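Agenda item 2: zinc ion complex prediction
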Amino acid sequence: MIISNARVLTFDSSHRVIDSGVVEVLPDGSIGYVGRVEGTTQVQHHPGGQGRHPSISEEKSHERIDAHGKLLMPALINCHTHLYSTLARGMLLPGRAPKNFPEILKKLWWRLDRGLNSDDVYYSALVGAIDSAKNGVGTLVDHHSSPSACAGSLDRIEQAFREVGLRGVLCYETSDRNGNASTTEGLNENIRFLERLRNEPGDGLIAGCFGLHASFTLSDRTLRRAVGANQSLRAGFHVHVAEDCCDVLDARRRGRKSPIARLHDLGILDDKSLAAHCVHVNASDISALARHGINVVHNPQSNCNNAVGMAHLVEMFRAGVRVGLGSDGYSPRIWEEFKAAFHVQKLRAGDPRTGYAEAYAAALLNNRTIAEKIWGWRIGRIETGARADLILVDYYPPTPLGAENLFGHFLFGIANAPVDSLIVNGRFVLRHKECVNVDEREVAAKAAARASSLWKRF
Ligand SMILES: [Zn+2]
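Presented output:
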């Protein structure tokens, strides 16, 4: 496939912006040529240096896409979400509204997840994957819970990802909150899925983590069982950390300094793990996050929605912590999280100069670093040899645009512009705003019927 006549934001080492750019997508789903105009000499060498890539003008058999001046950039990455929450949209909670984070969990999410059956899990994931695709997100890192339909649930989510065409990282949220049998089921679902991925790697579009809920719903015994089971799997743990102050108070009750200290001491947090939130952290925690290379995922809109507090994003960056960006299931639109990330930091600091660099780095640089470092995916850049995860955006800049002023264009323009097309691993997922692999309206109708039934059981 050859995409021509695009304004290309490469996100390569010099963040080149190429006007009237041409990008070649090779049959193996990687990026070949990246340059300015067909037939020119601006052909990059393949890594490994086995000669020049053939001029694209010689590749007559390629499908040719005229981008008509649209913006072409790497597909977005969402480093923490919960697709199982999809069918809660619009649901009215019975009784008094939850007044704090523990009540939100008990009255909403821990009741909803227990109500999900295997088909609900599948349709939740389908709808969530479609919504993400339409918002330019090509990779989702999901954290799943369905205690009444635990065994095999990750396969149903994988099925949905494959049908839509997204790249994904899946895990099951192990927790002690539903009793011993449920804990074992959660551990076993992670083990089963990770073993299957190890034995049948396939096309590499689906990867796994070892999922854990949070320090405050997990005993030392369960955490040790998870570490033991993971010895041979060598997956990273994906866990909520210090999202609310209740997690910190619980860790102290257990005689630990903090959730981060507890989870690190027990072998959960390391440089392959994802620690979602890290809102309630002190200087010692931040230092530990940096020292051990733990990957933090910031979810600002969810934090605002649950009124749990504001993460120390600027302090974490200053200390050298790698912080990526996720949605926590709050929105499929990672651009909204990008905006919220720096709005919240400005408010927190009371300083309009702060937060820009951190929000930009979290969304566009650190998410791709996390994806490459943990799952080996070279995405988030348009350069020869990277995977062809791309979006075409209806954005025609009304002011000069270059590598030096991308942030302003993201904030005030690109983040508000419609996503026209999404390509993942060289294949169209969304084309001219329509999902090419699934019928969105049919999926929505079936999901609505499932939601209606789920709500009655709630
Ligand atoms: Zn979460």
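Discussion summary: The chain has two domains: 2-74+381-435, 76-375.
Owner for follow-up: CH.
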